[in-house]
Amino acid sequence: MLIVKNDEGGRKWSCTDAETQRHVVRSIDAFLDCISSDTSHHPLVKESVTDIVPALGATLLQKNEAVMKLASKVFVKMVNVIPYSVIEPRVLDIVRPISSSLSSCHVPVVTSCATALNLILSSLTFKTEKDVIKVLEQTETINSIIQHIRSSGSKPVEFFLETLSLLSKLLWIWPSSRYRIWSDSGLMEVLASLSREPVLSIKAAVLQLYSTIALCRHGAEKLLDTGSPLVQLMIESMDDGNPSYLQLAGFTLAERFAVSEEGRLKMIESYCEPLVKAIINGLNNWTLYSGKLTKDQMSLIRVACCVSKIICWHGKHHGYFWKLGIESVLLRLLLDDLHIKQLPDQFSSSEEMISVAQDGLSANFLPVLKPHVWDILGGLAAHCAEDFTAHTLKSEHRLKFLITCACLGFVDSLRSTRQSCVDVVNEPVSKAVLLMIYSPSKYIASQTKSILSGMLKPTANEDIKYLLNFLNATSSGFNNTSDKLQVVNLISLACYSGLPQYRRYVMKNQGIKILLSFLQVLSSNHVHAERMNLSLHYCDHTMKTCCYECEEDWQGDETFLLFGLLGLAELIHHCSSVKGQVFESTEAQIVTEIYKICVNSRASGPRWYGAYLLSYFGLYGFPSKLGNRIGNVLNGDEHTNLTLVLANHELVNVHGVIVRVRCPSLLPSKELVETYNGKSLKKEVRLSAHVNHEALMKLLEYVYSGHLNAGEDLLKRLKTLAKHCNLQPLVQMLCKTRPKWRTCFPSFDLTSALGPDGSHFSDIILEAKGNTSEDWICGTCSSLKPHLHAHKAILCASCDHMRALLCSGMQESQSESIRVDLGWEALIKLVNWFYSGKLVPKPKYGCVWHNLDEQQKLNEVIPYVELYCLSDSWLLEYIHKECLNVIASSLDSASMAIKIIQIAADCFQWDLVGLAAKSVAPSYHRLRNSGELHELDEELVDIVRVASVEYSQGGGRM
């Protein structure tokens, strides 16, 4: 073989004669035929790979059609025959010629190259993944595949199967490449056309590609925007009459759609019953072979379990699951057929049912599916209607038996955690039992409490003492245990607190005090748990999603807080008769701590239970930072422009915009009447004779701040007024109703005031810097300058600087407009923060960000730099911190960092200059030698140099 060493010491094929190439390739082919699984790791094979790879690679790149066809096929054989561990050291030398040849105009060559690359990517290890992606980027692999799929002309089925499969694998390992797929409308049209092909394997390949596109939020939205045909195709593919590979492709896409609220709603609203039927069939239609499931069956059941977790959210689909006998389906996933067949229609006693359940569970049938079963059961229980009864079920005794199995699992979990042994199933089964105890359905809750109480009786007191001692030791810092153990113990204590027979014993042993101390430690130290059950979001823990904002999650990484608050709330709910003694010295402390949790928590669950707890201490509503700011303007007449007139002629001056947005039912839908009070024009609303002044003032306290303080004597009037005003969340708190599982926490948001709802109450205009624009159109006025119609009351409440401008008698306080030293994009973000407490719209990120050019990226970051500078002088600490985080995350290239250094220096923001300098410190010498630092003056270059020295002295760490 004509091999020579290259400059880097590697080997290179130097022959250009086609006949010689053909002969060599056939010789390699014959050699590969001689390799068996026994000889594949032989030293001779390993040594031969060093010569085979450059010979095949160079031959493939010679562009001789006949030789290319032969070489590409032999590449496929080599990757199939020789183990990946043997070829891994030369994997880049293999990937480069194969990916380069995907641009070939010869379909057989492209097909074989796609096949070979598919095989390599399937075996790719983490350590080589980044280098392989770099090669694929250099050879423009994605563009080559797109062009081939989009090109006209008939192609064999194998071509589409291999290229679509390759594209799926590329999108999986290379998230930033997804943008090029979902943003290519022409390609998406071709894919839609291919999905309608009668060939099932092509249909499955398209669905699989859709599944990887849907790993990107924008990609998923693009697919869902195509309308019903795609969702219908997906559900039809999930039908059990299809081959398993097509079913799996359909279920996988459904799983990806289920990641987001939009995807869940689209599936449930459009195809609820067919979707649920497909899920039930996917969970139920399987057969054991020699006592085992096949690999394909197990894959299908697992992904069906993942899709079925749409049950963990409220919706009409719950009724269909019960209608189709979900209780029997779940039982079949827990017990083998032998034990299922032996189940009697009726048990003579609860002891017999427990004994049969223990016997069935001891067989440990399909243990990998148990966590999914418990998640599904818990979701069903959490969202049952209050009037759910046995008549709703296809099989009542099966549900009772399923509850019994779950309670046994809970008891086993508690026993194992007492020995500090936490199994993967402990948390799901414990949480399922918790959700059944606290289920809105009295039927499920009573059945669970009855069965579990009997099981726990022998060791209940010892269990409770252990749980309380464990939490007490953890709060004191004496326990160094895993997050999982702490969570399972918190859930167990919450379960005991929900059982009437044992609740008093928990309270007698200082349960309230211990839980409060535990929550105080969590809150003050900002302790967060790892996400304990990712399967509630999606089952594939390796799923590389991109562009998905964190939905407002129910528990997030605040699992400790959620279950601690839930248990504490249940104890306080049942101790009203001894409230004076229990809380004599700690009531104010409890209110202060729980209030802080409500304001500072990032997840809905802890905030809901915090608000629920506060209602037992006379504080009703939903505390928030923005609500606290806006609440400060309630008691002053400054900038009020609306008068509420009670039947007894008492007058209450309010800010019309706040009332219009937060409590529109309090105002008439027709145009308000204006009156002149000697100083200014005010709009006037006359209220019903049924409205009490004291109740109205408390309601306004809620409207302005998001919460109110009230005594028991006023609750009845407040409930009536809140119901009349359609303030349902407030009514729920006034009635001390337990929060519904997985519902969003009511937000305090005034942004609708920036639209038609608030335009009539606007009393100030905020103008961005810049010139007038002929393209600018305002629906309220004729000004051609980019501006926003705002409200002095909200601006003054949100920002001390604005308050000083508008309320101090300065020139700006008399002006109808204020010019803010921000561009239009930055001004929008600032005003949105004033009105919502959020810095929105958020910058582009994920695969969209990675596909922007440098100027586009800079345009995304500039508004945050402007806000960073402004927030420094206006003392807006939150905005300052958030902008710094955004800017820091955008410094993903040297050119971006250099531009930020110059812009920050021009604004005298030296801490920002230092941040950007640190990001380029590792590349300082390269940048200096290439001249890229020339656009900076010497002082700034010196800052980068100093950062580089510090980087080197720190051993490569900043």
From TrEMBL:
Q: What residue ranges are annotated as transmembrane?
A: none
**What is the scientific name of the source organism?**
Artemisia annua (Sweet wormwood)
Which residue numbers delimit the BTB domain?
640-712, 762-843
Q: In which pathway does it act?
A: Protein modification; protein ubiquitination
Matches recorded under InterPro entries: ARM-like, ARM-type_fold, ARM_At1g04390, At1g04390-like, BTB/POZ_dom, SKP1/BTB/POZ_sf
Report the protein name in the record.
Armadillo-like helical
